[in-house]
Amino acid sequence: MSNFCAAPNCTIRSNESASPFFRFPRDTERCKQWVDNCHCKDLEDKTPDQLNRHYRLCVNHFEPSMICKASPYRTKLKDNATPTIFDLTSHLNNPQCRQRKRIKELSNAEARQMKERKKDSVDQSKTNKNYAEGQVDPETNDTTQLTSKEKEHREYLKSLFEVIVVLGKQNIPLNRHTKEVPESKCLTPSNFKALLEYRMNAGGDEALRKRFEMSAMNKECCTFTQQMQMMEVCESCIREELLQEVREVRFFSLVTDDVVEISGESHLPMFLRFLDQANCLREEFVGFLPFEGEDETLMERLLTEVTKKWGLNMDYCRGQAHFSSGVHSSKMKAIATKLTEMYPTAVYTPRSTCALNASLASGVALTGVQIVMSTFKKIESFFNEASSLQLELENAISIFYQGNEEKANDLKEACRTNWTVRHDAFEVAVDVLESLLLCMDSVHDNEDLRWSDQVTNDALEISEALADFEFVATLVVLKNTLSFTRAFGKNLQGPTMDVYFAANSLTAVLHSLNEVSDNIDVYHEFWFEEAVNLAAALEIPVKVPRLYLRKHHAESGTEIQPESYFKEHLTAPVVSHVINELNDLFSENHLNALRCLTLVPAVMGQLKFNTSEENNVEMYRNDLPNADTLPTELHCWRVKWKHRGKVTLPSTVHETLQLAEVKFFPNVLAFLRVLCNLPVLSLDVDGDASRKRFQMYLENTPDKHRSKSLAFLNIHYNARHDLDVMVDSYIKMYPENESHEQVCQPVD
């Protein structure tokens, strides 16, 4: 962010003056008004987001009536504040001076108006000086005079917050212990205190040094509890900046990830997907929700978090997507169903960041399926440890495919990617299973002592999972069942045109799966035979799972046949689950929304401009500025692109929204902005940065060392933060800590 005022002929710098500075608003209309009033050419080609991030105006350009003192410590603008005081003529008196800020040419009328305001500008400067000196604000009658002790105390708190933010964004725990431990029992200081001492010894923080020198020897500065409170304030302030962006654009979608363990407790990661003011589609992490209790309790807790704590209106929620596995799947399914009933426009969809087949398999609450999915995660983690392990697998593939070099090369290429999360993960797993088992056995034997004990133990664990018939049978059933949805799911994550055609191919996919269900005996016979042959090649005995035999053998009194067992407890439930899940994920409302992708010119052109979106937008009529004119506007939209001439048609929703002429079609613009919130549509290149950082945090941080607030700060590493706001929030939220003006408290 620039440290000088963006107004022409203004030389005020934030690092040389006590004058408050204000960011440009994110609201498009207000931001345009500010830019127009500035008459600065350099600002005209900037987006509202760029202006908000990098440009500011000082207080000298605002009328006194536009300024209020919302707190004793900060100067704020009113919601409708607009800068009106500018000096656009003084540079004319010195034409040889070099201007770094280009001034827009003024008409005679505009020049006269500026001169008339010059006198008011002088008066305004005097008024601002009085504010800085602590006189009474006529708007609020608040005194802004701070005592020297209060100023020192605030500087001290800012130093503490700055250290906490640095530690949090670097994912460094404030304390080496997960619970409060008196410093008298520690051999070395905590990370927080060590960084404070380093900061003081570096000589750059006099406020911090003075406070420590004044503290008594028997006092502990900033207790563990206060550190946690400050961490929560940091998280809250950064989240509020993000939520404010969402409120400004109104529409959003709610996205959750699989439940994670933090300090021994289950938490649900929550994301918000929205289109910001610059028409950039983003999916941002907003926090963890405790995931304990029954369905109704979880539902109430989620709505309370979103509406009351975050201040969002669920009536503006236009989509929801949830990824869950194992025992959590049923709870998340119940939450999704309830949300859809309460808010019909919150369409339930798959997640664009996860392959459809992986999502469908993870939601199957069968022991065998969950063993397969958890083993996939272990395999991915195992080969990420060292490149030499990948070479070991490729050598094993070469051994098993000596006579088919093309197939061997294809498998090697697939295994160099994150194949366990691909659309064809189960096909690759079946083809590579023999090589994978050979690789694991070789690593576990460790004849040449190349591998560490941890690696060999991991290899043994994976090998034992692979060498079980239940795993083999489950893998084969998943491969064959999900082969019907593989191309469909791949298209959903492809270009916009593929997504549109995928929506129209769902009927054929469901027809094929229903045929399998109706003839389950026939299909299961072929699939079971394939599993038996694969097990024979691996020398794995065909048998019923031991746990099932132990529970039911005595009750039945007869021998249980593996083929009948796996048909009843594996094949039939998996096929039924996939059919039901597809019907839930692709409701009529969802399909109608995807059919409206014909608003994208490239899709429209592929259909020879013979499209009709009017029948599919009924659910979103209230989101349109003028729904009555929609048919006429859609006709004009089609005609525009049909007679475009030699122009490349925009092929995505994002490209269409970037068009300058789309603003002349307000209904189309509004509908496209709502449509892109659907979680099934792919994000931009940088749109999922928050999710990637979230995954990195989970991979790099053991369960017992995880912290909700630390995770939030680390994931939002690039988020801007205001130390003054954090100090204000802390004083307001924890006034008991300020009753004696001292943060230091005696040690018990």
From TrEMBL:
Superkingdom per UniProt: Eukaryota
Biased composition range(s): Basic and acidic residues: 108-123
Keywords, sorted A to Z: DNA-binding, Metal-binding, Zinc, Zinc-finger
MF (Gene Ontology): DNA binding; zinc ion binding
Pfam families reported in the protein's UniProt record: THAP
Region of interest (Disordered), residue spans: 108-149
Span of domain THAP-type: 1-86
InterPro entries: IFN-induced_PKR_regulator, THAP_Znf
Protein name per its UniProtKB record: 52 kDa repressor of the inhibitor of the protein kinase-like
Species of origin: Salvelinus namaycush
Lineage: Eukaryota, Metazoa, Chordata, Craniata, Vertebrata
Gene behind this protein: LOC120057080
